[in-house]
């Protein structure tokens, strides 16, 4: 059986990793962006981000003061697991103290801080079932400078792919420099209104630059990336060629009367880390 203690230790470990070490695909995309940019201001901004990433790793400290809202993706396979939710909560509490993480979780009305990054329905735990004999945990700390720029559209079916592109462009322009670009953008298409936003967020777990297996979506990802970068918003919103490092799409089938589209905006601090536990 995978015990509560193993889950708590694993969550704490990957929370620390996520807060301090940016995934290699994002780092490489930022380095490419530095080479591609021509203006001094765009280069300077990306250089500052890259220096920031190196300092965080060297000193073992979080790469940004906003260590995010705790979001956990779980792939629950065919294994016996003891107190999954309690283990995750314990892990988040432990990470908050030991990394340490900024305490970001508040009551939405009183704004009173809970003091340990735990709250009503927080950490947000998304569970997906799997056939594998293992438990996969992914910590996805979500900064709100970017989260505040997410958008949902319930398009009419007739608006089609052109409607998706138009809505996407409006979302990128409305976000401007607020989400600390260069961003990574997750796009959900289909499902229902709540499902499409989850798809958009889940799309951010795919590596930057990873080609979608569905050729239609791979082409659309390339087109949306060009649309985002053609806005010229650039690094930190100060102009340049790189507004967005990558666009990832997740799709689900939907109702014949609708075309839900979700845009989930992720800042350059596209943090996540995973671990797989087996029942041994
Ligand atoms: S949007 Fe991202 S990089 Fe900007 S402050 Fe928030 S977490 Fe940090």
From TrEMBL:
It comes from the Archaea. Keywords: 4Fe-4S, Iron, Iron-sulfur, Lyase, Metal-binding. Its EC number is 4.2.1.2. Residues 9-275 form the Fe-S hydro-lyase tartrate dehydratase alpha-type catalytic domain. GO terms for molecular function: 4 iron, 4 sulfur cluster binding; fumarate hydratase activity; metal ion binding. Pfam families: Fumerase. InterPro entries: Class-I_Fumarase/Tartrate_DH, Fe-S_hydro-lyase_TtdA-typ_cat. The keyword Glycosyltransferase does not apply. It is an enzyme of class 4 (lyase). The keyword Iron-sulfur applies. Belongs to the class-I fumarase family. This is Fumarate hydratase. It comes from Methanosphaera stadtmanae (strain ATCC 43021 / DSM 3091 / JCM 11832 / MCB-3).
